[in-house]
Amino acid sequence: MPFLRNVTRGRGIPDERLEVVGEHYYLFGGRSPINDQCRALIAALEKEFADRGLETPIYWGNRNWEPYLTDTLQQAGADGHRRVLAITTSAYPSYSSCRQYRENLYDAGHDTSLSIDRIRQYADHPGFVTASVDAVRAGLAQLGAEGHDPASARLVYVTHSIPSPMAEASARATRGYESWHRAVADEVTRQVAAATGVDYAGGHDSDLVYCSRSGAPGQPWLEPDINDRLRESAADGTKAVVVVPIGFISDHMEVIYDLDTEAAETARELGLGFARAATAGTHPAFVAALVDLVEERAAIARGEQPEQAVIPGAEIGAVVCPVDCCLNLRQPDRPALCQR
Ligand SMILES: CC1=C(CCC(=O)O)c2cc3nc(cc4[nH]c(cc5[nH]c(cc1n2)c(C)c5CCC(=O)O)c(CCC(=O)O)c4C)C(CCC(=O)O)=C3C
Ligand SMILES: [Fe+2]
């Protein structure tokens, strides 16, 4: 509960909702998997830094639990560092996935003399897509091993639902939360089709659905919910699905509870074959992509114009966000870093 209160501070989420969410954590030992995921990612990044001869140390700070970002930045300053480059564990534009991190960097950095930059929004980097393509192929293989026909499975891409006004605000200065997810989903589908020879899109848009809605029932949030879509798919004659959590970079609680527990149960009730594709986690292509993004940002800071890898037709995320990027609709004047 103290962690959940930190996450939702000032956002009017009632305690009853937090108690329900707390029960999800109790199913997994009463703690989030996220710190272990961060430790594993940092170890993989350290190895990739070492392999490339980069001697820059990596620090780790959380927004809502220990180790807190404020303490981490104090420590970095005390250790004699002057410049910090933030790698956020969130890949898309939207208030919750972009500006909120930049606000927290402002708050945590503001009594230090550190200068703080951030890598660009990166979901449409080819390395992130490669990780999802491999994960979908493994999911299809799993369905095959369980006696389903992988060629007739449906790919269901899933991300965190957000309030509709937040989604609209994300589309002012970028193509927006939904559009970024569609670009990633379409490219994953295209590459899976190229690798397997099966046209999983069949001329349709990728199936993009949402999980983890919270907020009052009357408020509009992005839909459809994954469970509703599974029911519709079963009714349409789908026999098996690969659920692809492109909205998350690792197996957070939303993935292990909302997908692996809840959506998997819905699929079981419907008699649908169900495979959950892995998140990017420490996939080598993803780890290499993050280090490429670090090197890219450093080159930009030196005044160079590095090549910026992106999937075909997608938007290159901002390293310095426009001032109206992913607006905070509740507190529009709250200061944030990495913007102009
Ligand atoms: C877009 C997005 C991401 C993905 C981008 C990113 O990764 O940043 C994300 C990640 C995460 N969200 C997390 C946890 C929670 N998010 C909540 C609530 C909310 N999330 C929202 C959005 C997002 N959230 C929103 C619009 C709310 C409503 C309240 C508010 O506007 O603040 C609540 C309150 C209870 C509830 O309402 O469910 C909890 C506990 C954890 C940790 C999980 C773990 O412990 O493994 C992670 C990684
Ligand atoms: Fe969240």
Automatic annotation (TrEMBL):
SUPFAM superfamilies referenced in this protein's UniProt entry, alphabetically: Chelatase
Upper taxonomic lineage: Bacteria, Bacillati, Actinomycetota, Actinomycetes, Propionibacteriales
Pathway assigned to this chain's UniProt record: Porphyrin-containing compound metabolism; protoheme biosynthesis
GO biological process terms, semicolon-separated: heme biosynthetic process
Source species of the chain: Microlunatus endophyticus
Keywords, alphabetical: Heme biosynthesis, Iron, Lyase, Porphyrin biosynthesis
Gene Ontology MF terms: ferrochelatase activity
Entry keyword annotation includes RNA-binding: no
EC annotation from Swiss-Prot or TrEMBL: 4.99.1.9
Pfam families documented for this protein: Ferrochelatase (PF00762)
Family that this chain belongs to: Belongs to the ferrochelatase family.
Enzyme class, broadest EC rank: lyase
Protein name: coproporphyrin ferrochelatase
Reaction(s) catalysed (UniProt annotation): Fe-coproporphyrin III + 2 H(+) = coproporphyrin III + Fe(2+)
